[in-house]
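Section 3.1: Structural characterization of target chains.
Under the original work plan, the team committed to producing a structural model for every single-chain target entering the pipeline before any wet-lab resources were allocated. The record below documents one such target. The sequence was received from the expression subgroup and is listed exactly as submitted; it comprises 254 residues.
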Amino acid sequence: MSYKGRSLTAGNYLKLDSIESQFNGSKRTFNLTSGGNLFYPGSAYSILVVLGGVIQEPESAYTIDQYQITFASAPGASDDFFCIALGVALGVGVPADGTVTYEKLTSSARGVGIQSGGVVIGTGVTALNFIGTGNTFTYNPTTNTVNISIQGGGGGGGGGSVGGGGTFSSNSVGVHTTKILGINTTTIAGAANSEGAIQAFGNVAVIDGALLTDQNIDSNVFIPSGRNGLLVGPVTVGLGITVDIATGSVLVIV
């Protein structure tokens, strides 16, 4: 019959020397040898012991200590014996630094993968470095993912609703801020009477020193207390639109 089972590809499979000539009904401990040399099994489970035609149970019918086998009951003088070493234990050395490839690691040991909009942009990442203020992240234990919200910042192209130092994805995209600068904002930033050095709400352009303004006022205009306003006329105020000037403030039309 052909052999069926796991391929015998590792270890040294052999039959140990017989020790049945030493059986006398009282002796229980014997030296194991192979070719006359002491043999050290890896454990009681790494050898198959047959005594008197009966397979013996490891750690119950016998134990192993170094190269010696000790039976729970002394073999009889007429008992036959044979022992098969099922394999010599192989030591697995420590891999040298830088020799274990990414594919050989389990998925849990490969670091993290970085995605942007569901598209993988990095694998095996071991650290995330958040730069700037306003950046937040949340961990989802159900999907084992981290959601990152980047609010943008000075010096580089930002993400989210605001940014700085980058380019616009289309001509319809603007920038607004309540800090220093507001340009082409669809809503007035803050109270519009104290934020920043420049704030534009509506159609305003500066071209080679010329200030260009719209001739139509289609949004309500309020000149708060302590502020003065300037319009370049003539201008047309839309239906239902108001121009409100606080007491003590001035609106000049030139």
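Residues 137-167 form one domain.
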